[in-house]
Amino acid sequence: MDKFPLKQGRIATFLLLLTLALTCFGCAVDSGSDDNETTDSTFSDGGSSIDTDDGIAIAQIPLVRFFSDDGTTLGVQVELARTLSEQQTGLMFRESLDEFEGMLFLFDTETTWSFTMENTLIPLDMIHLDADWNVVGIVENAVPNTEGPYTIAAPSQYVLEVNAGFAERYGIRVGTQATYSGFELD
Which tens digits make up the pLDDT trace of 25-79? Predict the structure, then answer.
């Protein structure tokens, strides 16, 4: 007597029907357009999306990724500070920041940038990146509610603020390569 109630013929029929059903459901629906154009949109938090012809927006989360010497990557979800007002406010009055979150300051030029910690309630690391997304300096453990200035000697175009100790904990140092996704550099 068979251990399984289904005979081999029934199993083959079932698998054939399952394959046909999955094939039908996997077919694309024609939207009536010959091309599948997409347009980019920007969210208020600085992230972007891809809008498809059928009105579906696919969110792209703004990320900065660091590449370690051993080939692993580390991603940080970022809030973008593009405007002067956003850059002056920064992370002021924030009571916490998740481990893999930060604020990325996007500047138009590569120069030496100075920061203050006035009205900033949490200690921060400030990771300075050049125009090619190489780490050129790090301000570690910037003290809350202090004037600073917090700066490095090398010019940078982007500065990522993360929780204090982040750079040391994850081996980010001068020379570490980074990249970005989910947003455009205007």
Answer: 333 333 333 443 333 333 334 455 555 566 676 678 999 999 988 888 999 999 9
Domains of the chain from N-terminus onward: 32-61 (no CATH), 62-181 (2.60.120.1140)
Look up residue 145 and give its two tokens: 């509610």
CB 163 within 8 A of CB 124: yes
- Long-range Cβ contact pairs of 92-98 (< 8 A, separation 24 or more): 92/118, 92/119, 92/120, 92/121, 93/119, 93/120, 93/121, 94/120, 94/121, 94/122, 95/121, 95/122, 96/122, 97/122, 97/162, 97/163
Please enumerate in sequence order all residues whose Cβ is within 8 A of that of 175, keeping only pairs 6 or more positions apart, or say none.
134, 135
Angular region, 69: left φ>0, alpha ψ -120 to 50, beta rest = alpha
Say what the pTM is.
0.71
Cα–Cα distance for residue pair 60/48, rounded to 1 Å:
5
Q: Count CB-CB contacts under 10 A for residue 46.
A: 19
| pLDDT tens digits, 10-25 | 555 544 444 444 443 3
Kindly list the distances between the CA atom of residue 109 and the CA atoms of 44, 131, 155, 186, in Å, as whole numbers in the listed order: 23, 8, 9, 12
155 neighbors 130 (Cβ within 8 angstroms): yes
